[in-house]
């Protein structure tokens, strides 16, 4: 905040736990009160708990889904009606993940949440395009954001009484890290181009293609086994 102000930006901050709808609604109230008009909304909050699905506790699932998926849903609930009421268009950006397009062993809960965010973005894009509102969903691989360490810190503060603290375990190696400045520029370009998918890592392309090829190939396999539809 102080850094941005030192750069000459007019910056406001609002404490918000995206797990709680009323706090995101308060954030929207304050945004419109302070700014008068909102053009772009970023749903960016995210955490991760790693490990095999069989080892995930119920609290692990709730923690990841509440932040990573419900946070985005609460953002839509709080901001979308007001964007529509403005009648001047706008743009909503969701931060999902490569794990929301291709499953990763050891990231089951995170992947389920991020698949949900991708589905939310894709559906919303279809529904609001006629209103002049664009939607983008960012699906990076590894980015220099200290996601694991920050997730542990935030969870420790929010759930100090929980018995499910500790390391989220090793995460799959995927690609060279990209800096946040590079990701921010690509995302800004996507907003200006009204591009739905923001895919920073070219290395993810082959995995995404293989997933959809497997899905497509299933129709031929079923037909070969006698299925008619």
TrEMBL record:
Its EC number is 1.-.-.-. It comes from Mycobacterium tuberculosis. GO terms for molecular function: oxidoreductase activity. CDD domains: SDR_c (cd05233). Gene3D superfamilies: NAD(P)-binding Rossmann-like Domain. It is an enzyme of class 1 (oxidoreductase). It holds the Pfam family adh_short. Keywords: Oxidoreductase. This is Short chain dehydrogenase. InterPro entries: NAD(P)-bd_dom_sf, Sc_DH/Rdtase_CS, SDR_fam. PROSITE patterns: ADH_SHORT (PS00061). One of its GO terms (cellular component) is membrane. The lineage of its organism: Bacteria, Bacillati, Actinomycetota, Actinomycetes, Mycobacteriales. Transmembrane segments: none annotated. Belongs to the short-chain dehydrogenases/reductases (SDR) family. SUPFAM superfamilies: NAD(P)-binding Rossmann-fold domains.
């Amino acid at each position: 905040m102080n850094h941005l102000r030192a750069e000459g930006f007019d910056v406001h901050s609002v404490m918000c736990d995206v797990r709680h709808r009323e706090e995101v609604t308060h954030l929207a109230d304050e945004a419109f009160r302070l700014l008068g008009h909102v053009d772009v909304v970023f749903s960016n909050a995210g955490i991760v708990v790693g490990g095999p699905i069989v080892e995930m506790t119920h609290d692990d699932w709730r923690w990841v889904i509440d932040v990573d998926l419900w946070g985005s849903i609460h953002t839509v609930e709080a901001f979308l009606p007001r964007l529509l009421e403005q009648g001047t268009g706008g743009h909503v950006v969701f931060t999902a993940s490569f794990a929301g397009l291709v499953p990763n062993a050891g990231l089951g809960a995170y992947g389920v949440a991020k698949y949900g965010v991708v589905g939310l973005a894709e559906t919303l894009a279809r529904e609001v395009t006629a209103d002049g509102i664009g939607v983008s969903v960012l699906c990076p691989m590894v980015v220099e954001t200290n996601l694991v360490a920050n997730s542990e810190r935030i969870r420790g503060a929010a759930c100090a009484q929980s018995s499910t603290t500790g390391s989220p375990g090793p995460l799959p190696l995927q690609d060279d890290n990209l800096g946040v400045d590079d990701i921010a520029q690509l995302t800004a370009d996507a907003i200006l181009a009204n591009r739905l998918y923001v895919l920073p890592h070219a290395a993810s392309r082959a995995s995404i293609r293989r997933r959809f090829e497997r899905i497509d190939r299933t129709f031929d396999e079923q037909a070969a086994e006698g299925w008619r539809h």
